[in-house]
Specification:
By secondary structure, the chain is of the alpha/beta class. Helix content is 29%, strand content 20%. The chain binds S-adenosylmethionine.
Amino acid sequence: MAEHPPYPVGLRLTGRRVVVLGGGQVAQRRLPALIKAGADIHLVSPEATPSVEAMADAGEITWHRRPYAEGDLADAWYALIATSDPDANTAASAEAEAHRVWCVRSDDADRATAWTPATGHSEGVTVAVLTTDARGRDPRHTAAVRDAVVEGLRDGTLVAPHFRTRTAGVALVGGGPGDPDLITVRGRRLLAEADVVIADRLGPRDLLAELPAHVEVIDAAKIPYGRFMAQEAINNALIEHAKQGKSVVRLKGGDPYVFGRGMEELHALAEAGIPCTVVPGISSSISVPGAAGIPVTHRGVAHEFTVVSGHVAPDDERSLVDWPSLAKLTGTLVILMGVDKIGRIAETLVAHGKSPDTPVALVQEGTTAAQRRVDATLATVGETVVAQDVKPPAVIVVGDVVALGPDGTTA
Ligand SMILES: C[S@@+](CC[C@H](N)C(=O)[O-])C[C@H]1O[C@@H](n2cnc3c(N)ncnc32)[C@H](O)[C@@H]1O
């Protein structure tokens, strides 16, 4: 280890000759980044791994099928020495030194003139980490530092706002079913960059506590709406904050487009000329049953699943759900917003041919610490909901998948 730390630099290799000696695992790992950098890559090696060979076949590198020979590095700007022959590596490294070609050596980093940093990428930034500790290199530590930084930037636990590209506007973010780990990476990042967050009751509310003090958090349920409808009041709040030049996140439960009124908000924003991005989320319709051990499909049991809203009863004239047709399906029925009406929904399904013994599960507050599963059948679910005091939010699953045991047998 030299007593001075390495000097970090970004090489711009477009069209410049880079020589790689050896076509094994090291080359296989390093070549993609060199290709991405646009380098004119010459691989010198009698053999190569199938992946390296595929790069040559695709014309991404030029492969000279022979061992290293003196003179190979003469015109190179940069070299990667990684053959399995120590003598060849030493000779090539001496040639690189003589021609002042920066060179990385896979077998002896101390005798190399350049080191490859542990790199990762996040949103247009390359994170490159090098050991500078005079006690010696620690590649696993540098990789761990790289991972920590890249992961932190991706999941929003490290906040680095975009000053160049940051534009005012609204992001409709699907926050997932409630567990804060179940938001998407993009959603979490946008949340970390927000000036204003307008949040629903459902979704990952724990994440709100982590936001910096300057972020204005607005509870959508508490927006005063006077003579407006609640949704119009929310739309207006989104528009007003975005017009003040702020980054606004509309944090929703599950996915914005699954009974989430995402498109209504998108239309209102478009009408007001506000830029809007929509970030999908993990919908409770699939994840909440899953969290309670229920797959919505299973080979040989259910080849379809249907997600319906149960917020109005089957005989309500506002209902758009064709309950008689649903009763004829053999697959899984997933009902959201159906706790209050499940008794009448079950009666309707049975009246149109569904077996009263069909298993039903109600999963309340799925993926949160308060998750609770209550089982019933179509014949008993109306009473069970009352007797067990099941409360919204709950996802109701109807079908044979409910009875699947963890070992794949029916329970
Ligand atoms: C207005 S809908 C919104 C659905 C959401 N956009 C989604 O994709 O999950 C609200 C309903 O979703 C269901 N729901 C959402 N999160 C839930 C959770 N963590 N546990 C149980 N049910 C949930 C309940 O049926 C609730 O009444």
